[in-house]
Amino acid sequence: MNIILLGPPGAGKGTQAERLVENHGLVQLSTGDMLRQAKASGTEMGKRVAEVMERGELVTDEIVVGLIEEKLTTSDAKGFIFDGFPRTLAQADALGALLEKTGQRLDAVIELKVDDKILVDRIVGRAEQARAAGQPVRADDNAETLNQRLEAYHAQTAPLIDYYAQKGALNSVDAMGDIDTIAGELSAIVKTATA
């Protein structure tokens, strides 16, 4: 069982991935986490990642796909949730080729749909509440940074919605509601995909 979670920053992909891990025994493959783990590992791939990150450059698709291939071929997991990958059409093609090469398939792509303005207001409000309560606030939890990240998402990643819709793999969920309701909808999609 392999699924992709698509959605802009702040849509709840991480939260919902955690629920899918708990409820369906899938493994979350977050590219950010994988890159940090690789960098700390000291392996040959880890050294390549560290060099690129230390230069302040973006890690190449080749490296990210290599890390994902490593996970797909060495894990005994019953399935994966791709969170933060693919981000581009080229990465989507690379993932398709990789799944085919490893004898696996993509079972579902789930788009978490949100309203950008409401999302920005919600994130900024949450940051203000945390600040007022004396809790830590993420550096990127502000309107300016979030709007920049949303622009990048719409330019680079949103084209994947049409890409996967044309393949008949896309499911869309309204992610502006209650976390439990959204989790229930995602679970229903996963159960249908595995039936």
Can I get a quick summary?
With 195 residues, the chain is of the alpha/beta class.
Overview of the molecule:
This protein has 195 residues and is of the alpha/beta class. The chain has a single domain (2-194), classed as P-loop containing nucleotide triphosphate hydrolases (Rossmann fold, 3-Layer(aba) Sandwich), CATH 3.40.50. The chain is 60% helix and 12% strand. The chain has nine helices and five strands, in the order βαβαααβαβαααβα. It has helices at residues 13-24, 31-41, 44-54, 61-74, 89-101, 116-132, 143-157, 159-166, 179-194, and strands spanning 2-6, 27-30, 80-83, 108-113, 170-174. It has a five-stranded parallel sheet with strand order 2-3-1-4-5, with helices on both faces. α2 packs across α3 (44-54) and α4 (61-74) runs parallel beside α5. The protein is globular and about 50 Å long. The N and C termini lie close together (11 Å).
